[in-house]
Design a protein that fits this description.
The chain is mainly beta. Helices cover 10% and strands 44% of the residues.
Length: 153
């Protein structure tokens, strides 16, 4: 009976001490940049003026990053919408919204965009940024590009 009790005690203590798959997926080597002929998208360290908002209060659950989008192509455009999405390992083809910023009351966003801090789940395997724009003085056709940043463990 003593051996069983000792074994159970050892088992309980060892499971408490052993690390549990706590490695987080992260964006390494920040800042990371992807660009096309029209846009330059950079994910970097958070840079909010309130330093408390630049840190995750639950690092095992999420990390905090910043996002910069700059127009490096045709200057005769208006930024209409910027969206951020994450995906999780169990749903590789499904992306979940993190944030959406749209033009207000017909007033377009600036040709560049900055998000000083946004949270990203440590289980996420990718960050997708979607940029939608149109040519100035044209309400007809919108254009969209997607940028996918792979996270590493």
């Amino acid at each position: 009976m003593k051996k069983i009790a000792l074994f159970l005690l050892f088992f309980i203590v060892s499971t408490m001490i052993m690390p549990k798959d706590s490695e987080a997926n992260v964006l390494e080597n920040l800042p990371r940049t992807l660009e096309t002929k029209q846009w330059k998208v950079t994910v970097g360290k958070p840079d909010h003026s309130d330093k408390k908002l630049n840190q995750s209060i639950r690092p095992a659950l999420y990390n905090v990053y910043s996002l910069d989008i700059k127009n490096i192509g045709d200057e005769n455009i208006e930024l209409v919408r910027v969206e951020g999405y994450k995906n999780l390992p169990k749903s590789a083809s499904t992306f979940y919204e993190l944030f959406t910023v749209e033009c207000n009351e017909g007033k377009p966003l600036e040709p560049s965009f900055h998000h000083s801090n946004f949270p990203l789940d440590t289980k996420a395997t990718a960050l997708m940024v979607s940029v939608t724009w149109k040519h100035k003085n044209s309400d007809q056709r919108k254009f969209k590009e997607q940028f996918i940043f792979q996270l590493t463990r």
